[in-house]
Amino acid sequence: MMKKFLLTLLSTVICLSALAQPDTVSITLDNIAYPYPVKFLPVSTDGQDLRMAYMDVPPTVNTNGKTVMLFHGKNFGGYYWTSVIKALTAKGYRVVVPDQLGFGKSSKAFIHYSFYKLAQLNKKLLDTLGVKKTYILGHSMGGMLATRFTLMYPETVEKLLLENPIGLEDYLSFVPYKSAEELYKSEIKTTAESVKKYYQTSYFDEWKPAYDYLVKIGGNVSNSADFPRYAMISALTYEMIFEQPVCHEFGNIKVPTVLFIGLEDNTIVGKAYLSPEEQTRHGNYKKLAPATAKMIPGARLISYPGVKHVPHWQIPERFLKDLIDNL
Q1: Signal peptide position in this chain (predicted)?
Q2: Under CATH, which number does the domain 2-325 receive?
């Protein structure tokens, strides 16, 4: 019954949202409706006054007194967590969903992007909300940030939950170095068509109409007059991923950890800069996932054969059951 309900809910919400997406998306997603009210945390960094967007969603049943914080991936924002938020709040959890600085509805600032800085801002958000302990679920790039946050604030993290995180290997050790200026030249070429092609080949093994919702947000932002600014910030955050690996510190994690891994994932940040032969040597999550689980003391690995980079979209009912079971 739960499975049927979740599938119907996810399909309805996504399909309706996809139909409503505009052809041109603001770089701060001003014309994109989020599933819950969005608030803004004033932050100051690099001499600039900025705003960090977030959703703070209360439980829809009697609270269990626990909080889950969701960290999105690089190509996403808080909008793609809808099914996860609904499932968690229905179990009594408070759910905090930030758009990291430079992403989603948050300020698009020319600053030095750092996982350390983003972790500090998320800690400030939790302090502002009065949250002393939280579960952290990080997907893709959010997994790197969740790892850094956990290393910096272990006393705040109830449990670390990693959904197909990137950064399971040190990309800069085999990907040719590219400056932000060089990365920008690639990012500025982004179109809705190129985004869909990338999602089709990298994120999902079989395309479903519901996934067009993600494309219309991630791709139609390229039609904005401010897209060059967006493209440069995307380049700066790629630079952050390359230059600030976390894989060498997995052994230092001191909190309970669970990895949820789609085994068909073959994500490599900077893949386009590698030869076909080099590409076959890296990004193999079938090998990277168990190796990572061994490095993290006491970690549990939950594997999904036939699933790629975004399990909470590709197999929502199974992922949500496993997530809730592991809270």
Answers
A1: 1-20
A2: 3.40.50.1820
